Amino acid sequence: MRRVLIVDDEPQMVRALDINLRAREYDVATARDGSTALRLASRKPPDVIILDLGLPDLPGIDVIHGLRVWTSLPIIVVSGRTDTTEKIAALDAGADDYLTKPFLMEELLARLRAVLRRPPAIDEPGTVTIADWQLDLAAYTAAPASGNGEPLHLTPTEWRLLAPLLRNPGRLVTGRQLLQDVWGPDCEERTNYLRVYISGLRQKLEPDPAHPRHLITEPGIGYRFEP
Q1: CDD domains per the record (predicted)?
Q2: Containing domain of residue 75, as a range?
Q3: How far apart are CA 24 and CA 36, in angstroms?
């Protein structure tokens, strides 16, 4: 049974989540503040955390930072804060997804299933398959997954852009983080760079670039790789 830790100080929200998750055979624990959440997570690590940002004792961002010191378990932020800057800050801190209140319970459940299906992050260079291509992150090569045909050429910049996405399958990586990693801190606002390069990667890797299956855009926030 999958264990979910709900961190929220709104009793009605906690009750609604608790009822819906237990009805779907999740094991549920709850915390009304950040300190309790960190203590519970360390004593009995859950499989996923659903976290509100507006907590009475600690900012939700600080809870994310505290968790990321020792664990990579999935964190879904569920918050009434709609400002894009808040969303990006939470994702940059290490959250895996962000859902704005109010939301449909079915959408939260779908996102919960998605993060729980996510394979572990690739800590060491390895191979990743995208559609018909097998990408080797150690050798920086892209070969047909079938073993037949010519290798695909990707530029050094394309590899630098792909690597953090491929190493974090299913996880949303912010545009600002990608721009800083690839082009440096002075280029964090050059979102046109990302649009151009992601479009080029889709042309090379996606079977249908106009309807991408693997390199997904989250408008205004960033990108994710879906295996």
Answers
A1: trans_reg_C
A2: 3-117
A3: 25
